[in-house]
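Q: Sequence in, structure out?
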Amino acid sequence: MDFTTLLLNRRSIRDFLDRDVPLVLVEEIIQDTRLAPSASNRQPCRFIIVRDRKMIERLSGESKRNLLADLTRNPGLPLKQYETTLADEKFNVFYNAPCLVYFIGPSELFSLEVDCTLAAAYFMFSAANRGLGTCWIGLGANIRDPALRGEIGVPEDCRIVAPVILGYPKRVPAAPQRRAPEIVKVV
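A: Exactly. Output:
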């Protein structure tokens, strides 16, 4: 696939075929992420691959509980728009995807957000190039229970930056309308 086609085909996918993604394929995609730039070439991103669907459901439930608790404490959060959806017992924040990959790294690293975001972008392009769909699920990063974090392998000194779901898409939607770039100034 040429680069322009790849850019056009990478979409946020939230509806997947009931088909597992082979672990070797997930590992190949993760290998491609090592080519992503990182501050001072630290390459701080680490990955947790979750393929157990029951575990993905548990992680969804944990995130939903924590987000709803946040809304109870602070009803003015922008998250308010998702309250009804999060309260729905049947709603899975990971859209019943067959695979979830957490991009994590050292909590204290100043560039972690940017480094993991760049790695996640490479991951998404690599997946699209292989006919797979992805979606960054910001609502799925709220795993706070120490026992559950330990169960999936998040070290105490690390934080989750990007939960990305992965699977074979039922369909790839057309690209949404994009605004023209706003160039503020050319100096």
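The radius of gyration is 17 Å.
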